[in-house]
Write a structure and sequence with these properties.
- The chain is α+β, with helices and mostly antiparallel strands.
- The chain has five domains: 3-64 and 126-211, 2-Layer Sandwich (Alpha-Beta Plaits), CATH 3.30.70.260; 68-122; 218-337, no CATH class; 353-543, Orthogonal Bundle (Hypothetical protein af1432), CATH 1.10.3210; 576-689, Isoleucyl-tRNA Synthetase, Domain 1 (Orthogonal Bundle).
- Helices cover 49% and strands 15% of the residues.
- The protein contains 25 helices and 19 strands.
- Helix 10 runs antiparallel to helix 11 (383-395), helix 11 crosses helix 15 and helix 14 (427-435) runs parallel beside helix 15.
Length: 692
């Protein structure tokens, strides 16, 4: 069977950069599903994209659908034919619905009952009959965060579609969409190769586009940008540390990249380096240039969309002029902000509302001071460290009132650090101010210093407590206050610094500062907050390749902190499929099931009536003597070693003893003994969660 390359190109006005990656992923998946459903075999599916086009290229697409043979089940034989063997209305109706005559119906038994079946053969159609509708469906299937209407209210796309190209080998696949008819014509670069191009065949698409100054492949375009940026940085004696998020955005802003080196006055290097980098990367999409030691050089690299060499000086001058104005503003803001010590901005925090029912950022700052004091005490910080944390908490939100942060919100915390140092604050307090927003995003690290970690936890827990207390809980994909990110930040920070304060205690401390102002029962809010945090714990543990059942077992451990829970999960995972763990899982499960819902109760040895009870109690007491000090010092291997010998006396107990004795006192004592044994195992985790 003949195979050819199939091309579908959707030519548009400039699509926003952030739309392109998700759109190409959708296009690939939808094409795979559509071709499979259409019974069309292929060898390779690739998607490409630029700001002006989304492209599907299918290699080795068969020229014809596969034939379809179906066996359709109908009514039971006794309903389809009467006693004389004549077809009933049921048989006639079924045959008619399947497009066959009654004489072609067959009888087959299913689970001992005979039914009538219709065999249907559907010959495969050629691609020219299938692809037109498939192309239209693919275009309609693409969704975007903010689609546009332009041709009619029935047509929605990221930006207006201006041309459609569809080829199977060298043959056109004509179809209509949004008032356009697809054909073999495409468009080259808007300025370097204006005007339509006629493609001879789909196979030549990539090479023809490159000849006309369009690098369709985002991966190749990204590599070319990196190459040009590195070369440009080297030309001025520096190097560029490529930010992957910026690289992805610039890749989707251009069709034919051309790097241009610009410069700015060296006097602007007096401004904190983070300001200059933010102005270049976030606001202008420029790549900064650094010297070998990491200090910024007075150069930047802009990537234009296919500028001709004779116009590069104009492009360079234009970009320098734009950046010069922005840096001049930044220098002015920096000078103005420094006229007051950072501490004097704290009083002005009453001008910023935190959450409407809970007052201003000034009130939040007051809560942070008390919360940090409580957490410092729980963690056991030294007096000097506690003073550092409290001073940092006082200053943490002050930079929100500065002109620099108003203009560059991304620099909150970072500017607070610089202004704190310039105001004579200690380096430790200044660093904690910068770190208290960490981690700022998924790829960021938690605060590195302990004072910064305490302040970061306090700030995020106050926000969580406030929102949960007011019922502002994330649901589905809706999380307007970024509470999932805050919770993940709390958990990752606790683990990074191996803090042993349980999550339940941290929730209680945070809610204590808000108990008089929130509208919901504090105990209920505390439980919801802890479960919300534990969901993030599960996520982080799963990222460490821990099994879901092992995670659940570890989280069932009795009274443990997060570092302890992680250690328990890692130990249990290491013991999976070992005889030692296998031997204790079933005995533990039996003890846990019988004592489910029972609280601790006292075991009375004088009520034992069998040797098996005495032996289990003696073995449990011996295990506890080793287990408890081992757990206190974090030696979980010793905990496991102490529990392992209990399997034999537990088996012996269940073999020799009827737990539910007629004597109520004896029965309760036996349940108390099993509860005591169960609680010993719960120091390690709820082993009943582990799937064998």
């Amino acid at each position: 069977m003949r195979k050819e390359t199939f091309l579908l190109e959707i030519g548009t006005e400039e699509i926003p950069a952030r739309f392109i990656g998700p759109a190409l992923a959708q296009l690939e998946k939808n094409a795979c599903d559509a071709l499979t459903e259409a019974r069309l075999k292929w060898e390779e599916i690739c998607t490409y994209g630029t700001p002006r086009r989304l492209v599907l290229l299918v290699g080795g697409l068969c020229e014809k659908q596969e034939d379809l043979d179906e066996l359709k089940k109908g009514p039971a034989k006794k309903a389809a034919f009467d006693a004389a063997g004549s077809p009933t209305n049921a048989a006639l109706g079924f045959a008619r619905s399947q497009g066959v005559t009654v004489d072609l119906l067959t009888i087959q038994a299913v689970d001992g009952v005979e039914y009538v079946f219709a065999s249907k053969h559907q010959a495969g159609k050629d691609v020219f009959a299938v692809l037109p509708q498939l192309c239209e469906e693919l275009i309609r299937s693409l969704s975007f965060p903010k689609p546009m209407f332009w041709q009619s209210k029935e047509i929605r796309f990221a930006r207006p579609i201006r041309w459609l190209t569809a080829l199977y080998g060298s043959a056109e696949i004509p179809f209509s969409f949004a008032g356009l008819v697809a054909g073999r014509k495409t468009m080259g670069h808007r300025f370097l190769a204006p005007g339509p191009l006629a493609l001879a065949n789909a196979t030549a698409y990539l090479s023809v586009m490159e000849e006309h100054f369009v690098l369709v492949d985002p991966v190749g375009r990204s590599r070319e940008i990196m190459r040009q940026v590195e070369q440009a940085a080297a030309s001025v004696g520096g190097r560029s540390i490529v930010d992957q998020e910026l690289l992805m955005e610039v890749t989707n802003l251009v069709e034919y990249p051309k790097a241009v080196v610009g410069m700015f006055a060296a006097e602007y290097l007096e401004i904190p380096q983070e300001v200059l980098i933010t102005a270049m990367r976030a606001h202008q999409r420029y790549f900064p240039v650094f010297e070998e030691k990491g200090n910024l050089l007075p150069y930047f690299i802009a990537v234009s969309n296919g500028t001709r060499d004779e116009y590069l000086d104009n492009v360079r001058a234009g970009n320098e002029r734009v950046l010069r104005a922005r840096l001049a503003d930044a220098r002015f803001f920096f000078a103005e902000d420094r006229k007051l010590p950072l501490a004097e901005y704290v009083a002005k925090l009453d001008e910023i509302v935190f959450l409407e029912p809970l007052g201003t950022m000034r009130k939040k700052t007051e809560r942070l001071l008390r919360l940090c004091s409580s957490l410092s005490e729980e963690v056991g910080l030294s007096k000097k460290q506690s003073e550092t944390v409290e001073r940092a908490a006082f200053l943490a939100k002050a930079d929100l009132l500065t002109q620099m942060v108003y203009e560059f919100p991304e620099l909150q915390g970072m500017m607070g650090m610089h202004y704190a140092r310039l105001s004579g604050e200690s380096d430790a307090a200044a660093c904690a101010v910068a770190e208290h927003y960490a981690p700022r995003h998924a790829a960021d690290s938690p605060a590195k210093t302990l004072p910064g970690a305490i302040l970061a936890i306090a700030d995020k827990m106050d926000t969580l407590a406030a929102c949960f207390g007011l019922g502002l809980i994330p649901s589905g994909s809706q999380d307007p206050y970024a509470l999932r990110r805050s919770a993940l930040g709390v958990v990752s920070t606790i683990l990074a610094h191996a803090l042993t304060v349980p999550l339940s205690r941290i929730c209680q401390i945070a809610l204590a500062e808000l108990s008089a102002e929130i509208t919901r029962p504090v105990d209920e809010v505390a439980r919801e907050m802890e479960e919300f945090l534990l969901q993030r714990v599960r996520f982080l543990f799963a990222e460490k390749s821990l099994r879901y059942d092992v995670i659940d077992a570890a989280l069932g451990a009795k009274g443990s902190d997060l570092p302890g829970l992680l250690s328990r999960a890692e130990l249990l995972q290491s013991k999976l499929d070992t005889p030692e763990l296998t031997r204790i899982l079933t005995p533990f499960a039996r003890a846990a099931n019988l004592t489910k819902g029972r609280s601790e109760s006292i075991v009375l040895p004088q009520l034992f009536v069998s040797l098996a009870e005495e032996e289990l109690y003696r073995a449990a007491k011996q295990a506890a003597a080793t287990l408890e000090p081992a757990a206190a010092r974090g030696d979980l291997a010793a905990v496991f070693a102490a529990l392992a010998p209990l399997s034999l006396p537990i088996d012996g107990f269940f073999s020799a003893v009827m737990v539910m004795a007629e004597d109520e006192a004896v029965k309760e004592n036996r349940l108390a003994l099993l509860g005591y044994v169960r609680d010993l195992f719960l120091v390690l985790g709820d082993l009943g969660k582990i799937v064998q």
